[in-house]
Design goal:
The chain has about 725 residues and is of the alpha/beta class. The protein has three domains: about 170 residues, Rossmann fold, CATH 3.40.50.2000; about 180 residues, Rossmann fold, CATH 3.40.50; about 350 residues, Glycosyltransferase, CATH 1.50.10. The chain is about 50% helix and about 15% strand. The protein has a seven-stranded parallel sheet with strand order 3-2-1-4-5-6-7. A six-stranded parallel sheet has the order 10-9-8-11-12-13, sandwiched between helices. Strands 18-19-20 form a three-stranded antiparallel sheet. Strand 1, helix 1 and strand 2 form a beta-alpha-beta unit.
């Protein structure tokens, strides 16, 4: 049997890779004859020298990996942790699982009692595509069934394995650690405050009085990046302040010449000071217990399970005084420490890697490994252009994004528009959700800085800021609405607490100082407030205004299903998709079926003039109430279509109705050449989008609005694809 272990290799945490490598090696040792066990990884940057290394953020690589697995392996063991893979919340891995034709087994390394909707969707999908799934605690079994709706019959509880090794003497331990100490306290983990290393350092002063030759050894098992280095410095500053700097040694996992389990077992006490009480995944604590170490831990959910039957002892979260007392007791009372070691060693013998590997092999032999049927989606996202914000970047000049550029040279004559920069902000936020890049967050910061500069002392906003810094005009209602929409999206996205706080303050300023009257401006405002209420439904200030604007929009459209003119204007104007899209946001929050009926009627009315030739075309713009069909439009603009891509994507997400599958794809394909002139408005070389076309001719200008429209449509069709996958299971 040929087995593939598939895992992400994350810079910020090596824990998954430690587990995956040990799993692969231990299974390989049991291989016979034609058996093979390989390890394949997804990395931030693929290793060109390794044929089994792929790019974490390239969706096409997931398709390639699925094809390789189908052709070369009999079974795939997937290692999963939230956001460990590429895409929104790590959902690219769904695309791989959808294409597998060999049996899939999935190990879930992190299960949450309060998962996000996206994480529930991904976990449920992977579980449905898997023949069996593994978790590492009994609580995880319960949560997987209850919160993620996974079939209990598929769930198997397993243990983190521990290597088989020979104990080492004190002198060898000190040599391997580069210290000279009689007593050693060890702690391992990622260099961040959740690891609780401060608690251990704060406990040292009272210990060193009794044990002047004691050493605390902290091993960083995470990245060696700037954040880790700064956190390390903060720990050493704390050690200096407590007068114990000579008793603290910080080491990198990558620099060790011995296995972690050997060092954990050789320490006098192993301390896990994790501050997250709901943690259900902790490879390091499991390794420490399995190694036979004398363990002290905070009472996390996993620790409570792992240390039962006196396999270790506890101290309260962040309590350095309690930890100090427990450490003194354990160091002085060798009999108690030996009791913990004996019980832990017995557990380790039952969960050694050879035992775990043998259980897995027996599981494979006991399972009827049924070939899966790949899911065929009407969207093939690997054929879509890669995310390329190069053209938008070319529009940046000094303080903000200008409207357009020619051959990459920004046109500075019109300065910075509030509306356009709000639209760019929205695209940057969406892009950061699909690919978490610091360059996107940096651009979001700069965009927010410009937007702040366009607010005057009276609480109103300027329309334009020249490149020389001169502000002119008063922002239109549409610009204010667009800004509310963008700020609401920024507030709810995972772009950093500081950016979220700034966005929320600006949004409150807008809704408190501006009264919107135009229906389309209110529609934009409704979508912005809906984003806020999705994560903060108790926000009374936003809720009241959301309800007020929502009622205004609902009353615009006919409530009589028999009226032939299902629209709120006597002539259909530009951006007709705004009102239906805003009402979809309303329905998503209140689930009012009458609102859904209004949305569907208005959409059917518009579809008569947009999907009649089996392709999308905005032919309803300019249609008057008394006319049978609209006049031939002089120009078809790019900034109309993206609204309908999102409309269909969201309607399918909410209703799962078959009729909304294909129209969203058709809308997006309009940009890529499936239009009345057969020409692509998206320019693959620059990442920009042409403004419009008329007759048989493309308008060569690439503006902020057209390029943003394309990318918003791109992200919406990606959303649609993954909703389609979820619907299949």
């Amino acid at each position: 049997m040929k087995v593939l272990v598939l895992a992400p290799e994350m810079q910020h945490s090596h824990h998954l890779m430690i587990y995956s490598r040990q799993l692969q090696q231990s299974m390989e040792q049991l291989s016979v004859d034609e058996d093979a066990v390989d390890l394949m990884t997804f990395r931030e940057v693929a290793d060109a020298k390794s044929p089994l290394s792929f790019d974490l953020n390239q969706l096409s690589d997931y398709v390639e990996v699925a094809d390789l697995i189908n052709k070369n392996y009999d079974v795939c063991i997937l290692q999963y942790q939230p956001a460990a893979y590429g895409g929104k919340g790590g959902n690219y891995i769904m695309n791989l699982a959808a294409q597998l034709s060999v049996p899939l087994l999935t190990a879930f390394h992190s299960i949450d009692s309060d998962p996000s909707a996206l994480d529930k969707e991904i976990v449920h999908f992977l579980a449905e595509r898997s023949q069996s799934v593994f978790v590492f605690s009994q609580l995880s079994v319960e949560f997987l069934e209850h919160y993620y709706k996974v079939n209990r019959d598929k769930i198997l509880k397993t243990d983190y394995g521990v290597s088989v090794f020979q104990s080492i003497e004190l002198e060898d331990r000190n040599t391997l650690l580069g210290i000279d100490a009689q007593k050693v306290i060890m702690a391992c983990g990622v260099m961040d405050r959740l690891s609780g290393f401060e608690t251990i350092i704060n406990a040292l002063p009272s210990l060193t009085k009794s044990y002047p030759d004691l050493q605390l050894v902290i091993i960083n098992t995470g990245a060696e990046d700037q954040y880790a280095r700064e956190y390390t410095k903060s720990l050493m500053r704390l050690a200096v302040q407590r007068g114990v700097s000579t008793h603290v040694q910080l080491l990198q996992y990558s620099a060790l010449s011995a296995e972690l389990e050997v060092l954990m077992q050789a320490a006098d006490v192993y301390v896990s000071a994790v501050v997250d009480d709901k943690r259900l995944d902790d490879l390091l604590l499991s390794m420490a217990v399995g190694s036979g170490a004398a363990v002290l831990s905070t009472p996390t959910w996993l620790a409570n399970e792992l240390l039962e039957d006196k396999k270790g002892s506890f101290f309260p979260f962040k309590s350095s005084s309690e930890l100090s007392a427990e450490l003194l007791l354990m160091l002085r009372n060798e009999r108690e420490a030996q009791l913990y070691r004996s019980n832990a060693s017995l557990y380790g013998a039952q969960t050694s890697w050879p035992v775990i590997a043998k259980r897995l092999k027996e599981l494979f032999q006991g399972l009827t490994l049924v070939a899966a049927k790949p899911i065929q989606s009407i969207v093939n996202p690997s054929y879509l252009p890669d995310i390329n914000l190069g053209h938008l970047n070319s529009l940046w000049w000094q303080s903000g994004f200008v409207n357009e550029s020619v051959y990459g040279i920004p046109n500075l004559s019109k300065g910075y528009s509030l509306n356009d920069n709000a639209l760019v902000l929205q695209v940057l936020v969406k892009a950061s959700q699909w690919h978490d890049k610091e360059t996107y967050r940096d651009a979001i910061r700069r965009c927010l800085a410009l937007i702040q500069n366009m607010r005057n002392d009276e609480g109103t906003w300027f329309d334009v800021l020249s490149t020389c810094g001169k502000a002119t005009g008063r922002a239109s209602e549409m610009a204010i609405g667009q800004l509310i929409y963008a700020l609401g999206a920024t507030y709810t996205a995972n772009v950093g607490q500081g950016l979220s706080d700034v966005s929320y303050d600006l949004l409150l300023d807008l809704i408190n100082n501006h009264k919107l009257e135009l229906p389309r401006a209110k529609a934009l405002g409704v979508m912005g407030l809906a984003n806020v209420l999705q994560v903060d439904n108790g926000n009374a200030e936003c809720f009241d205004l959301f309800n007020s604007w929502s009622k205004d929009l609902i009353q615009l459209l006919p409530d009589d299903p028999y009226k032939s003119w299902q629209w709120h204007e006597a002539e259909i104007g530009e951006q007709a998709g705004l009102i239906p899209l805003a009402l979809i946001h309303v329905y998503q929050l209140n689930r009012n079926k009458e609102v859904l009926s209004i949305i569907k009627r208005s959409l059917r009315f518009l579809e008569k003039h947009s999907l009649s030739d089996n392709r999308f075309s905005i032919r309803f713009t300019g249609l008057k109430k008394e006319e049978v069909k609209p006049k031939v439009a002089k120009e078809y603009k790019a900034n109309e279509t993206y609204l309908f891509t999102e409309i269909y994507a969201r309607l399918f997400e909410l209703t799962k109705e078959e009729k909304y599958r294909k129209p969203g794809v058709k809308c997006h394909n309009w940009y890529l050449g499936d239009n009345s002139i057969g020409k692509s408005l998206y320019d693959i070389s620059s990442g920009g989008c042409y403004h419009s076309f008329s007759g048989r001719t493309l308008n060569p200008a690439m503006s902020i609005q057209s390029t943003c429209a394309y990318w918003l449509s791109h992200f919406s069709v990606l959303d649609l694809h993954f909703h389609l996958l979820s619907a299949e299971v």
